[in-house]
Every structure is written in C-alpha cells, then in structure tokens.
Amino acid sequence: MINSTHKLNEAKKRLEPVDCTCIFCGKGQVDNPQDNIYVSLYREIKREDTILHKKVTYKQIKVGLTRCPKCKQMHRKEKTKAILFAIPITLLVVFVSYGIAVEFLSKMGGFFLVGTIGIIVPILSYFIIYHGLEKKLYETEHILPEKEAAIQYGIVKELIDNGWSFNAPVA
Ligand SMILES: [Zn+2]
Predict the structure, then answer these.
(1) How many Å lie between the centroid of ligand 1 and the Cα of residue 150?
(2) Domain boundaries, the chain
(3) What's the pLDDT tens digit per position in 89-147?
(4) Which of 71, 73, 121, 164 could be disulfide-bonded to 41 (CB atoms 3.0-4.6 Å)?
C-alpha cells in the first residue's frame, strides 16, 4: 500500500518521503531530511474484552511530512512564541488559584489543586496559543498547520481510508 511518494524504513518503522516538495507551503524544497515532521498513525489488530481483562493490540507507523527550512523556522518561531505566552498565563492562574486555595481549602487540598493547575494550564494554554498562531501563519504566509497538512497529505489520507487513525486505540 506504500505509494511512490514514500519508502519504508523498517528499522525505524517509518515511511520516509522520497519527494522533496514541502507540503506545508507547497513551494519550498526539503534541504535537510531532519527538517521533516513525522506523524504517528495506528491501526487496531486485535481486541480482547473478557471479564478478566481488556487488551488491545495495534500496529503503529510514522509517516514523514516534507518540510522546507523556511516552514521549519516558522514553526519553531511560533512554538517559542506559544511558550513565551503560556508562561505568564500559567503564573497568573497559579498565583490566583493559590490565593483562592489557601482561603477555602486545607493546606494539602490547596497544594493538590495548585499542583494540578500548574501542570494542566501550561500544556493547555500552549496548545491553544500554538493553534491560534498556526491559523495566523496560514492566513499571512500560507503555511498549513501541522495537523491540517497531515490530513490533506495523500499517503496519510490513503492510510486513514484503510483503517489507520491518528489516535492510539485504547482498551
Ligand atoms: Zn515550506
């Protein structure tokens, strides 16, 4: 099922692109294969669901998305920006929630709440901000967001049509 755009690297369990045109801008050429992005796809093989145990067996493969140096640089810039925005947001939320926590909860409860917030808020705000920046990048530079580019990519589309998915199956 591998089409002419990729070749299988068995050792690394991945499909490496043969083509050199960047799929994010559609114009640039791949300069260094290290700049390519790999997305993981999964396919369920077997599912056991008995009273005693639940188990799912699946296959996983990585597919290379070609990326030119300009798009790599743009993605990196937006990721850095997203981190820089997420830090003050996290600090503010942790600070405010700590104030509320010490007011209303026990010391342990407060620590737990602030700890949980301190883990969730940076991750969530990073993803939301990065998603927004990717959208803007598309509007101004016509560089596709990572997920969008993957979905539109011929070989990924083909795999999805054949039962593969971006999400690992859960038992
Ligand atoms: Zn590009």
Answers:
(1) 13
(2) 6-68+144-161, 72-141
(3) 999 998 888 888 777 777 777 778 888 888 999 999 999 999 999 999 999 999 999 88
(4) 164
**Cβ atoms of 43 and 163 closer than 8 Å:** yes
Q: Are strands 14-17 and 37-49 parallel, antiparallel or unpaired?
A: unpaired
Query: Residue 4 Cα, ligand 1 centroid: separation in angstroms?
Result: 21
Q: Which residues surround ligand 1, an ion (CB under 5 A)?
A: 22, 24-25, 28, 68, 71
pTM of the model: 0.78
Q: How far apart are the first and last CA of the chain?
A: 27
Q: How far is CA 121 from CA 16, 115, 126, 149, in A?
A: 35, 10, 8, 27
